[in-house]
Amino acid sequence: MIVAENLRKSFRSRHGEIRAVDGVSFRALDGQITGLLGPNGAGKTTTLRMLYTLMRPDAGRVLVDGIDAARQPAEVRSRLGVLPDARGIYKRLSARENIEYFGRLQGLAPARIAERTERLVAALDMGDFIGRRAEGFSQGQRTKTAIARALVHDPRNVLLDEPANGLDVMTTRSLRRFLQGLKAEGRCVLFSSHIMPEVARLCDRIVVIARGQVCADGTPEEIRAATGMANLEDAFVKVIGSDEGLFA
Amino acid sequence: MSAWWIVFRKELLDALRDRRMVLVAFVVMPLAIPLILAGMSALGARKQIEKLEATLDLPVIGAERAPNLTAWLASHNLRIVAPPVDADAAVRNQEREVVLRIDASFGTDWRAGRPARVELIFDSSRPIQSGTTINRVRNLLDAYDREVGTLRLVARGVHPAVSSPLQVSARDVATPESRFDLAQQLLPYLLLLLAFIGGMQLAIDSTAGERERHSLEPLLTTPASREAIISGKILATAAFTLMSIVVTLFAYRLAFALMPSEQVDLSLDVPLPALARLFIVILPIVMLGATLLTALAAFARSYREAQGYLPLLIFLPMIPTLFLMVAPVRTQTWMLAVPFLSQNQLILRILRAEPVSATEWIISLGSALLLAGVAWFVAARLYHREELAASG
Asked: Which of A8, A79, B217, B319 is disulfide-compatible with A59, CB 3.0–4.6 A?
């Protein structure tokens, strides 16, 4: 389970201070898929970066399985499987070696890495390129490798930043099935997206973020009911205040 | 397995699969450095031999005025040739290295027993090119002078020793190893340069390159601490540089083994134990270089940016070499605490087969390693900054 409590983060820029995240709170439960939905620049990536301890919040707290991320960042990272916005893989290593590298850094024994790799190769359908060097991989092959290495240590919690970015329809469909598989295994899955239909189709719970703040949080039905809109799309536009950047 | 060791192994494997990096470190460097030094040395040695042993053409003005002298010179491996029209100009234009002029009154003075005058025309501003030739002619004239003087004293019944109140005997303490030439000055610099920035490619690739390829952020999502990650990268850079140096030193040794011995300056032929000592001397520089390169490259946003300013570091090892060329001073203990200056001095002393005391070893290794440690600490602190990974 992942809990965000009143997270705040500002950045200094030439034009003064920018409040990227301004008091975000939500919880993502085990056995559920939680979607972080918001237009581009809403603060989704910054929020996720605080969750996986890449950034330190100016205020607020992150708890992963009840562990405070500020106090035990390494422990929190070992409980998270993260697919960040940046998902570069090592081109001179094979897909398998890329996964092994992260497995070792997670402290897994070689036998366990091999066993986990086999399961992920089957689940993500990577059999035809697992032994090849990553130079020249397609976008889909790169994303699958990045997801496999993020999950090699069998984490209870899975964070994905815009996982469907740049993927074709077939790969998106298999990714969707994969996330549902993770949910069925009782994991806590949290992913961000700016694509409304994707979130609506997959998520048990939706957290809508705009301008660094949470403007709606609940099941799709709850959000529909709260806004009085029959159509989920209209409901989002109503909570965000505009449809800018939502369908890009 | 500790995280730094995992990162270290991965970075080395990654680098060894980069064909360009391997080519530079294990082929280009090991070929270039011995070739430059052995080539320079062989060329210098050959010129020296040529100038000392080849028949020298000596233009003489008024050779007919001193037939005995010219005949004597000709019997000492000189060929008397016709003088140029303007002797001064010919020497200044480097058409001739030296011209001998025999005075018009040479014959009369000689017969009268007065010192007869000969004039040597040369250009002292070119000691490297014509110094050997000038000395050769001058020594021959001195020898003729002494020979005839001795004969005259004997003819008058005087013991020749009367005219030599002073007996100067010279004892040159230079060992074959301590003879200095340009190639020898260059060796410490090339070694230090290789040690210091030999790992530049790897340092850039594993940090700035990692940022550019967007693989740093995923790496930082693992439990590995940032200290462990940067330590692994620094050590991989150092290990790669050391491998390159070992190959280069062996290639250097091989180059001298293969070259005909009369053609090279033997002082550059370093025996294996001395090579091992050289390796230890530059070890801390390898560590210092790897740390500084990695720390700096970690903050470049891209490969190109890193490549833009890292070559400035080339000048760092150059400073003491230039300093010593301009102001050659005796080694003082404090110098051994100054990185680069210290290594430069020790390399020269090892090449000259001079002893290095235990204290000097400790000062040299200790000061450079201490500095590397400080750089390491700073690099690890810097690696904690948030801007590092979150550049997107």
From this structure: A8
